[in-house]
Amino acid sequence: MFLFNLLFALTGLLILTVGAIVQSSYHHYSNFVADESVSVAPILLIIVGSVVFIIAFFGCCGALKENSCMVLTFSVFLIVIFLLEFGIGIAGYVKHGQLEEILEKGFNSTLHNYDKSIDSQHAWRLIQSELSCCGVQGPRDWEQVFHNNTLPNSCCVQMPANTNECTIEHSLQDGCMKKLLSLLQTNALILGGVGIGIAVVQLLAVCFACCLSRAFKRNYEAV
């Protein structure tokens, strides 16, 4: 049982790590994610991962002391965690299907506010440099912002030798929305898969803990 709870604690670390990685990617490009509820699932996963360590402690103590009450408490906590993780998993898959619409709103909003907002300028410079992309669907999206056939410098990997201005001819051709969508969809699927996968494992753990609690109780009554 002790080894089982050690494994359970490690799953908590896995949950926390996955939640932190997914939340980091959402936060890093938060200007383009127009729905704050998208970040709720990874935050919950971080909280759940932390709580799992505490629950694993109860399980270890209960098993070492052969205390049926502590093991039963462990089982109740496991059920609550199971429901949370299953819900997080479902939320991850639901948001996976809505990401394209959410990103489209965010990208169009920051593009239209580019001249008015320093945050939008910084966000576009960051995403175009890191994801090697230009514009929402492509470099021509910038024509509604720049009217002299130039683009933000972050659209060009190498500037033309005879000028300091980035132009469509020398720019990156891939749109940023497609690249960010692919990144976030992968994260959403990982989030959902981890949530549901570990929830199933922990459901089996509930059954095991309940059986162990009954065994401890029978041994206590026999004494």
Helix and strand layout, with pairings?
Elements: H1 2-28, H2 40-65, H3 68-112, H4 118-131, E1 150-151, E2 166-167, H5 176-222
Antiparallel strand pairs: 1-2
Helix pairs in contact: 1-2, 1-5, 2-3, 2-5, 3-5
Subcellular location: Membrane
Keywords: Disulfide bond, Membrane, Signal, Transmembrane, Transmembrane helix
Signal peptide: 1-20
C-alpha geometry: rod-shaped
Helix content range: over 70%
Total helical elements: 5
Specify the biggest β-sheet: 2 strands, antiparallel
Counting helices, strands and paired strands, the structural category is: mainly alpha
Domain module count: 1
Beta content comes to under 5%
Strand order of the largest sheet: 1-2
| Element string (H = helix, E = strand) | HHHHEEH
